[in-house]
Amino acid sequence: MNAHLQTSRVSAALERTGAWLLAFLWVLPLAYALWAAIHPSAYSAHFTLNAPLTLENFVKAWNAAPFARYFMNTFMLVTMILTAQLVLCTLAAYAFARFKFYGRELAFVLVLLQLMIMPDVLIVENYRTMTAAGIVDTIPAIGLPYMASAFGIFLLRQTFKTVPSELDEAARVEGAGPLQVLLKLYVPLAKPIYIAYGLVSISYHWNNFLWPLIITNSVSTRPLTVGLQIFASSDQGIDWSLIAAATLMTSAPLLTAFLLFQRQFVQSFMRAGIR
Amino acid sequence: MKWLSSLVGMAILALASTAMAADVELSFYYPVAVGGPITKTIDGYAADFEKENPGIKIKAIYAGTYQDTLVKALTAFKSGEPPDVAVLLSTDMFTLIDEDAVMPFDPLLQSDADKAWAKSFYPAFMENSQTGGKTWGIPFQRSTIVMYWNKDAFKAAGLNPDKAPDNWDELVAYGQKLTKRDGSNVSQWGVEIPSTGFPYWLFQGLTTANGVRLMNDAGTETYFDKATVIEALQYWVDLSRKEKIQPTGTIEWGTTPKDFFERKTAIMWTTTGNLTNVKANAPFPFGVAMLPEHNGRGSPTGGGNFYLFKKMTAEKSAAAIKFVKWMTTPERAADWGIKTGYVAVRPDAWDTPALKQYVADFPAAAVARDQLKYAVAELSTHDNQRVTKALNDGLQAALNGTKTPEQAMKDAQQEATRILRSYK
Lengths: 275, 424
Prior knowledge:
The structure holds 2 protein chains of 2 kinds.
Chain A: H1 3-37, H2 56-64, H3 67-98, H4 104-116, H5 123-133, H6 139-147, H7 150-162, H8 165-173, H9 178-189, H10 191-207, H11 210-215, H12 224-228, H13 240-260, H14 262-272
Chain B: H1 2-21, E1 25-30, H2 37-52, E2 57-62, H3 66-78, E3 85-89, H4 93-98, E4 102-103, H5 112-118, H6 123-126, E5 130-131, E6 134-135, E7 138-150, H7 151-156, H8 168-178, E8 180-182, E9 185-192, H9 199-209, H10 227-241, H11 256-261, E10 265-271, H12 275-281, E11 286-289, E12 301-309, H13 314-327, H14 330-340, H15 353-361, H16 367-371, H17 384-400, H18 405-420
């Protein structure tokens, strides 16, 4: 056995250990949440194998706030934002990538500039805009500031640029109009990017907290994250079992989706080159 | 003719006010997340108020924690749509004044009855509600720190289960008897004074007992590096490091009650706001006592006040003051105290039959009230968030052993002085 093979084996073993270690660390909080959620709160810090199992924490957490409504709000919010983002970003990216028009570079720089600004800085200004539009405390008001996503435009533009222009020209020779070319050629080719971007967008808006908190006032518009607040008031002390149950409950849709579409997600992330 | 014109004027005014009355809607920001029992209580109050005061609508907006509510209220204010009434921390008074967001109550309180109302609250609560001769906040959900002890644990340690440690030395002596060790493991600690979230507040329970205040009334000076303050911190640190009757490092505020329920600590310091929680969840008989004394006795007050935001119309501010008065009547204050565990904010609330009955059944509820005569204002200065952070960081550094108490308090004082320089 030569030395070269041996080193590669050692490094493979090291890599495997490292991966297991990272995976273990990653799953630890989740495992704890699961433990705390399915046992009575007296066992949330005692790890006894024969501790009684219970689903009561989930029932309590579910009844602590109108979570059914919050789920629906979050679902509507995320769907609305993603739909609007996909339409707007596709069209904008297409224009930036394939059309020549006066001021294109300047417009693109302005879009990129948006990437540099933290959305939190704009909260007061956004609130003022929503007040002027008369839509404070509505679901569209939560989504509106995020719809024209600079990140999405940038990502799709870069992808569209990698499409060989020969394909584009061939399609046009066949008689396809600009919109047809976009839908039949660019969009299908960018599918992995769309999936990756969609996942980032969904998880970001599923978890977004500050802006929804500020712009919403009522149960009928608040998303899950704001609803989860009820368990955060530490004046009365913290019940880890309830928090764990509520957290699992609210992140369950995302977790299941990830497990179901794991392969597609990982692949599209690798192709899209984003984290 | 003069009477005629004044009559016409009054008629117009009356007409206008009835016409306007139908429209007055007060937005009321309240710091709690939607869904809990407290939401139902507040909704009930709002509904009762609307029934008794036709023409005024209360739109209660539940905004999460105090922090979140403050952010939300200030954002709305800066965008030109402030809330009308809000319950926010009493310590945020200077912040709200500096932002020019709130208005004093005084101009709205003209009649003698109104002025008497403003004086009907416990003076200890008004310390955090007045500055520069004006009243900026009206006490609503206020608390103090008290000491809870496990009577079973006291009995097991050979102590009188009905007597809590009354001074610092006794706390140490009792703590040593109560701390159960097997080898290097401790199965029950003597005492836990939580030190996360807002350690400065618990620390004030020690400094006040040591006869020292942390800031001046104008909120422009702090006294973190006074010898008596350092001494108080030394005592706190010693509980862990020298006497070994308290866990070392910082102690989580949120889980301290749980440690108490699970008998991991025999004594805990926490807010009176926890009384209802402890009553419902402690699996053993427990007692509630004032904080132990040293060179004096005392505890800081805490909790939230009513504030009135600027930019209200005259009709709205009249309705707002009506609402605040209605929410703080003796009966309401008593009811609120019973339902939540907060201290009823005015002495005459304790004379109501409901609260008298409650105290008779559950004497622990009166401990916080009796402690009020020794209570001082919670730490509050201009640029409050940053100043308290300077102190919190110092306290945690000392408790974690990365700085000596003296060094920690000197650094905190230096930082606070720097922050407050522009307000002098």
